[in-house]
Design a protein that fits this description.
By secondary structure, the protein is α/β, with parallel strands linked by helices. The protein has a domain of 110 residues: 3-Layer(aba) Sandwich (Rossmann fold), CATH 3.40.50. Helices cover 48% and strands 15% of the residues. The strands form 2 sheets. The protein has a 5-stranded parallel sheet, sandwiched between helices. Strands 6-5-7 form a 3-stranded antiparallel sheet. Strand 5 and strand 6 form a beta hairpin. Helix 2 crosses helix 3. The longest helix is centred in the C-terminal third of the chain and has 15 residues. It binds P1-(5'-adenosyl)-P5-(5'-guanosyl) pentaphosphate and magnesium ion. P1-(5'-adenosyl)-P5-(5'-guanosyl) pentaphosphate (G5P) binds next to helix 1, helix 2, helix 3, helix 6 and strand 6. Magnesium ion binds next to helix 1.
Length: 215
């Protein structure tokens, strides 16, 4: 199965992708995680991406398409995967379609997570992420058992630089202008599934499973 998970910052794309990967043995491809790893390792890509990410802006399309081409069709390419955070612009979606045509691959479904923006701001302000395995927590609704430590691997939990109030607002604005047009783009393909994403992560996961396998 090949899926795209779409939705505004903080709606739960990473959380649901981790659940799907665990349940169905798929590979999680998060462009945000790839860029944060590059920044941590001070690579050329990291240097390039850092300025955009701290401002809540998008990294240029050609850079992102190059990363995805390598991840999906390079050495060690996965067969079953979920794209989390890509595509994010019409140009990225068109570039991805071209790659799929060249490699004779088809996407099975595009999941659009749908939730109220006010809920999203609260979720992002309380998010903590594991530096080691990228597991996602929430200080209000899903805190780790031990403060500052990941339940899964014991790694250090940190708050993302772009989860400050003013950057969150900017990211939501960028989503509305540059990424939301993808909803209409994918509606035309007939593969878009709209998933109610309020409630608990487990409830949202049930909604996704109902859409994908009927229960
Ligand atoms: P990212 O890393 O792709 P965003 O902004 O798209 O970042 P983000 O912030 O990672 O998305 P998410 O993955 O949708 O959000 O949400 P999450 O982390 O799973 O959950 C957020 C919080 O809510 C957590 O605390 C979680 O516990 C809680 N939560 C989750 N689900 C639920 C639920 O169902 N119920 C409740 N109650 N709580 C829940 O991109 C970052 C930057 O990288 C660059 C850009 O600069 C971008 O801003 N970038 C790209 N640039 C260009 N093109 C691309 N393709 C790019 N990809 C990344
Ligand atoms: Mg995420």
């Amino acid at each position: 199965m090949k899926l795209i998970i779409l939705g505004p910052p903080g709606v739960g794309k990473g959380t649901q992708t981790q659940k799907l990967c665990l349940a169905f043995g798929m590979t999680h491809i998060s462009t945000g995680d790839i860029l944060r790893e590059a920044i941590k390792n001070r690579t050329k890509l990291g240097e390039q991406a850092n300025a955009f990410m701290t401002k809540g802006e998008l990294v240029p399309d050609d850079v992102m398409l190059g990363i995805i081409d390598e991840k999906l069709f390079g050495k060690h390419a996965p067969v079953n995967y979920i794209l989390d955070g890509f595509p994010r612009t019409i140009a990225q979606a068109e570039g991805l379609e071209k790659l799929f045509i060249v490699h004779k691959v088809q996407i099975d479904a595009i999941l659009l997570l749908d939730a109220d923006v006010r809920k999203i701001i609260d979720r992002l302000s309380a998010r903590r992420t594991c530096r080691n395995c990228n597991a996602v927590y929430n200080l209000m609704t899903n805190p780790p058992k031990q403060t500052g430590r990941c339940d899964a691997c014991g790694g250090d939990l940190f708050q993302r630089d772009d989860d400050k109030a003013e950057t969150i607002t900017r990211r939501l604005d960028v989503y509305t202008r540059q990424t939301k047009p993808l909803v209409d783009f994918y509606k035309k393909s007939g593969n878009l599934r709209i998933i109610p994403a309020t409630g608990t992560p487990d409830e949202v996961f049930q909604n996704i499973k109902k859409e994908l396998i009927g229960g």
